[in-house]
Fold each of these.
Amino acid sequence: MIKDSLYLYNTANRTKEHFTLPQGIPEVRMYACGPTVYHYAHIGNLRTYLFEDLLRRSLEYFGFKVRHVVNITDVGHLTSDQDDGEDKMEMSAERMGKSVLEIAEFYSAKFKEDLKHLNILPPTVWCKATDHIKDQIELIKKLEEKGYTYRTSDGIYFDSLKFPRYADFARLDIAGLKSGARVNLGEKKFATDFALWKFSPKDRKRAMEWNSPWGVGFPGWHIECSAMSMAHLGETLDIHCGGTDHIRVHHTNEIAQSECATGKQFARFWMHGEFLRENNSEKMSKSSGDFLTLDFLIKKGFDPMAYRLFSLTSHYRNYLNFSWEAMENAQESLNSLRKRTQPFIGIEGGVKNVDAREWSLKFKEYIGDDLNSSAAMGVLNLMLADSALEDSEKAALIKEFDGVLGLRLLEKVEKAKHSVEDVAKVEALIKERDVARENKNFGESDRLRDVLLGLGVIVKDGKDGADWEWK
Ligand code: AMP
Ligand code: ZN
């Protein structure tokens, strides 16, 4: 490894590679797949955005300027990867009795609020699929002209067997797919073909549909990322990232359609964050509707920075297992770390002597080794215990390291309004009240409601027991 350099794991080649920019490219062209705004982001999704924030901060730490683009998917993401099922946005709008636009605005704003809570830097550019319909149509037209598409009764499809490298990225077994049992392909020619443009149903007007050379309809989910990233970053990106679930289908399809359209390499580095799991189950899923949000952690008395610290304790390419016990440990680690860094607030920094520079080099070495955040946090802890350092040097090093870790270590924190213990007390009283209600002891349940009100808690009764919120 070359000293003082950044190495990143490139999914395309399954190796760590030295990251540099090609000659003449002034800034890192980085694209991250953003949320489909049909629901709240869950803390698993947020783990991926935390990884991308760590990546962005690390690139800047290594002296790169970064142009970071994140999309908002507000059309075209169907409930099935097989290009059928319902549009997630339209389904959500129906469920909530709102328009698709209202849904998109509501969940986009909520998502941006989550990022702010987690101290995730806003991207250089936010873009929305519905603002780029023309770019998507143009890209599909290019593919059509080059002979990569075909038409079925429900849309325009990409002919994946015409792209000989289709299977390479995800190491797919095309021969196996060819010889395997035929899944229900409908009019698709091959299992890995995918929709570029879907027609609106004949008997119903969709909430969101556009004219196109092929008929009224809407773009497929994959084409949106190719079109938007090219519109904002050009035909070749330096880094494209997302969660590991995107390797097999979404990113494989993005590569196929982009490289067939332009004849150029689409992204030089592909980086993927591994999943957050809950209780060791396969994954936390937004479509199941049963998941943890950042707001819920906050309601439970946790500081969003404790979740950030929790995610930094494991490498971004490893599974991370969520448990309440792990969250409590992360909150304790954050509290004790803050106790040690807060005395340095307001102290002018300056890294002078050799010892101080050594800490800096060590930290950089770990971050440079494919973003080894847990080892880098170890360096921070050891540095804080180094009695040979002057206060001004420690202050400078905390600031430098926190520029990458983003834990707000040099910001004054107001004491959290509610501690984890307060929440536990409230939940015990809620349970007690649920039992009283089950036993039809309404006098006792009213008394407990008043006790809770005294603690600043509003109780909301529902058919599955009571929910509550802080006043
Ligand atoms: P979505 O809004 O479903 O498109 O997901 C947004 C991002 O979160 C994508 O990059 C996904 O790969 C990622 N993601 C989804 N579920 C998880 C999870 N359980 N842990 C980590 N990342 C996830
Ligand atoms: Zn994408």
Amino acid sequence: MIYDRILVRFGDLTLKGKNQKEFIKALHKLVASKMEGLNVEIDYQHDRIYIHLLDENQEEVIKRLNYVSGISSYSFVCKCDKDINVIKETALKLMKEVVNDTIKAFKVNTRRTDKNYALRSMEITKAVSGYVLANHKLLKVDVHNPDIELNIELRNDACYLYNTNIRAMGGYPVGTLGKGLLMLSGGIDSPVAGYLAMKQGVEIECIHFESTPLTSIESAQKVVDLVKKMAKYAPNNKINVHFIPFKEIHMALLDNVPESYNITIMRRMMYRIATKLALKRNCLCIINGESVGQVASQTLRSMNTINSVTNYPILRPLCTYDKLDIINISKKIDCYDLSIKPFEDCCTVYVPKAPATAPKIDKAEAYEKAFDYEAMIEKAVDNVNSICISVDSDLDLPLMGLEVSEVIEMIRSKK
Ligand code: ATP
Ligand code: MG
């Protein structure tokens, strides 16, 4: 294989003015952490990265690059000396390797960032395409409709040749936009929302409201397993997860609130708790998987009544997404099979038969007076169980009948 390097491009990070340096530094760090343990040599430049493959498996490198937000595209490249005769020879060798029966016409594009080079871009293009034509009898030049393009980049350090340009994850380097608190259930939507937030540069911590033993410990395990998948996109492959003991509030709701307002008020409680935790954890926003119209609590009227308990910024990356599009992303990030496992969580036990689709703020406030929710919220936040989960965590919670707090306590005492 003539290609021995991968050229990584940063996309529109270059548009970010003063932040540019910080973004590039973050991207360099992300790539370094994802490449850890691989036999590659990385050349960090201010506007791109070259990964020299040495004898490393190309597929593995690409797999890991696809977890790095902020990379716009990459190409397999070969590097050669800037002598025009060496460039011509390398171009011919490359074309011989990549051309097959379906490829008849080619085109050469040259970009010259080394302005002191003796030949101009057009002259290089002509010299190289003439040489390839003369020595590769099956090929002709077609500048309007080529089957393949040969790109030549003449830079200060060397010349680079390539003919692929593969789209990468895009977005901004995770963490450069600050940190957000993801409300993570065990469903399909919230991991996708978390992925999209990370893609856009937001580092995440997760909050999960758990009602064990009212709900099964497996539903908490599902959260752990989902976080392990999402951690592949996180800085250092790690994400903090905060399990909020929600059973007491859950029971109070069932005892005190009319059934039709149960979910509305449950979600108002979640938002109140998430706001407190976000402030504590220096998270600049709350993120969730809500999508307009999906369920009774996600009509615009419901969202108004629920959202009125906080003035914290709420990111809803999926607010206008179709469920099928969400499922496609869920599959792409390898969360779908986990998300559809049928364990109940606090939103799926005791679902009211007729939840309000147009709940009113004053009514919700009146119902909330029936119990001392503020004390319960304080207690829940004080008793949060936090744990850092990495891609290769072997955290197992299959201890039937136990509460999350007990399991986490056991894990801590083993360490
Ligand atoms: P998902 O939306 O993730 O598929 P779901 O459908 O069970 O899960 P919804 O009832 O649609 O959840 O809730 C909307 C959003 O509220 C979720 O996307 C998630 O962000 C948040 N949420 C729901 N339940 C919980 C929970 N137990 N812990 C943390 N966040 C939750
Ligand atoms: Mg949902």
